[in-house]
Structure formats: structure tokens, C-alpha cells
Write a structure and sequence with these properties.
The complex is a heterodimer of chains A (about 110) and B (about 110). In chain A, about 0% of the residues lie in helices and about 60% in strands. Chain A has about 110 residues and is mostly beta strands. Chain A is globular and about 45 Å long. Classes of the chains: A mainly beta (about 110), B mainly beta (about 110).
Chain lengths: ~110, ~110
């Protein structure tokens, strides 16, 4: 089964609102990453948070990590229609391997 | 820079046919990956190559083979395509040593009829 599981599966909001997506995982990790995918396109990296970090910001993005609960959240503040996309978390497991395991993603729709 | 380039972008195969998906990166990355993405789902790792000369199975390797031809190129081969392999295939790469962000190609949309 996949390492990361996002919820909700789909989220629909109005422009200007905040969007929160959650990710849970199962094993010890080196880091957790969030990616964005516009329809029919490749994934684009948004932010990486290491296992010894609890919170990280990048522009309108805020990511938190709780390793005791094996969970992370991605907050997009003041959302825009252009934020409409699918968002995926990916985990890099501890142990020196580089492979990234992705969750099923959250489909975000931001309405003007 | 081109980043990660995949060819072809679209392909239709008949059941039982074979084909090779090509991937090349120009970022001097050591690690490369092949994922598949089915409708409404996340990416599942097929194979990865941590460095030139090494390959390892991912979550869903059955029905696929890979070749790390050199540091730049990582190909995925379907020996006998099946309808269950209809999917969008993504190649990705990232530096090794420390796990950092992965860079993705634009995908190959494969339909097996």
C-alpha cells in the first residue's frame, strides 16, 4: 500500500479562502514533500520538510509535520483560481534510499 | 535547460505488443524513477535507479523492465503490453546523497487496447 494518504480526496472552496490538506504516512521518514499537479501535466515540487522540522513556510504555503502522529498538513492561504490542481504528499523513508512514495492526492478546486 | 524529457508523449499499443518509454535528464542527477498514475490516483513507483548501474523494484514492477543506459537515460520497457498497463507514465530524477526534490517529465499517456 502507498506510504502517504491524503485527505480530503477533493476540496472545493471560493477564492480568498484557505485550503487545508492532510497527509498521513506509515513508516519512519527522512523527509516529507508536497507536490502540485495541474491537469494532464507533470508534478511540480512545492516544499520539503525534514523529519526534525515542525513547520515550514513558502509564500502562501505553510506545511506542518507531526512525526509522533505520522501526519502532515499543507495550508494554502488566500487561495486563487490558479491554485486549482491536485496536491500530493510524498515521503522519503529513513534508511538512505532516495525513492519517493506518493499518496493518492487531494483535488483542489478554487472558484472565482 | 530541458530538465526531464520523456518520449513519446502519447502511444497506443495492442495487447501483446512491446515498447520502450524513453527518459533523459540533463541535470546531472544520480537518481531516476519511473512512476505510473492511474485516473484519480496518486503515483505508484514502478522502478528506480539510485545511481548509474543500479536498478531496484518499486511498488508495482510486474510486467516492466528498466535499463539505466547511462547517467542521463533511464528507459522503461513493456515486453507484452496488457490493458491493465493503460496509464500515464512519469519519469523523475533527483540528486542522490541527500533526498531532495524530484523533477518530473511531462508524462507519457499509454493506452493498451
Amino acid at each position: 500500500s502507498q506510504q502517504g494518504e491524503e485527505d480530503p480526496q477533493a476540496l472545493s472552496i471560493q477564492e480568498g479562502e484557505n485550503a487545508t490538506m492532510n497527509c498521513s504516512y506509515k513508516t519512519s521518514i527522512n523527509n516529507l514533500q508536497w507536490y502540485r499537479q495541474n491537469s494532464g501535466r507533470g508534478l511540480v515540487h512545492l516544499i520539503l520538510i525534514r523529519s526534525n522540522e515542525r513547520e515550514k513556510h513558502s509564500g502562501r504555503l505553510r506545511v506542518t509535520l507531526d512525526t509522533s502522529k505520522k501526519s502532515s498538513s499543507l495550508l494554502i492561504t488566500a487561495s486563487r483560481a490558479a491554485d486549482t490542481a491536485s496536491y500530493f504528499c510524498a515521503t522519503a523513508r529513513s534508511g538512505g534510499y532516495n525513492k519517493l512514495i506518493f499518496g493518492a492526492g487531494t483535488r483542489l478546486a478554487v472558484h472565482p | 535547460n530541458a530538465g526531464v524529457t520523456q518520449t513519446p508523449k502519447f502511444q497506443v499499443l495492442k495487447t501483446g505488443q512491446s515498447m520502450t518509454l524513453q527518459c533523459a535528464q540533463d541535470m546531472n542527477h544520480n537518481s531516476m524513477y519511473w512512476y505510473r498514475q492511474d485516473p484519480g490516483m496518486g503515483l505508484r513507483l514502478i522502478y528506480y535507479s539510485a545511481s548509474e548501474g543500479t536498478t531496484d523494484k518499486g511498488e508495482v514492477p510486474n510486467g516492466y523492465n528498466v535499463s539505466r543506459l547511462n547517467k542521463r537515460e533511464f528507459s522503461l520497457r513493456l515486453e507484452s503490453a496488457a490493458p491493465s498497463q493503460t496509464s500515464v507514465y512519469f519519469c523523475a530524477s533527483n540528486p542522490s546523497g541527500r533526498v531532495t526534490e524530484a523533477f518530473f517529465g511531462q508524462g507519457t499517456r499509454l493506452t493498451v487496447v
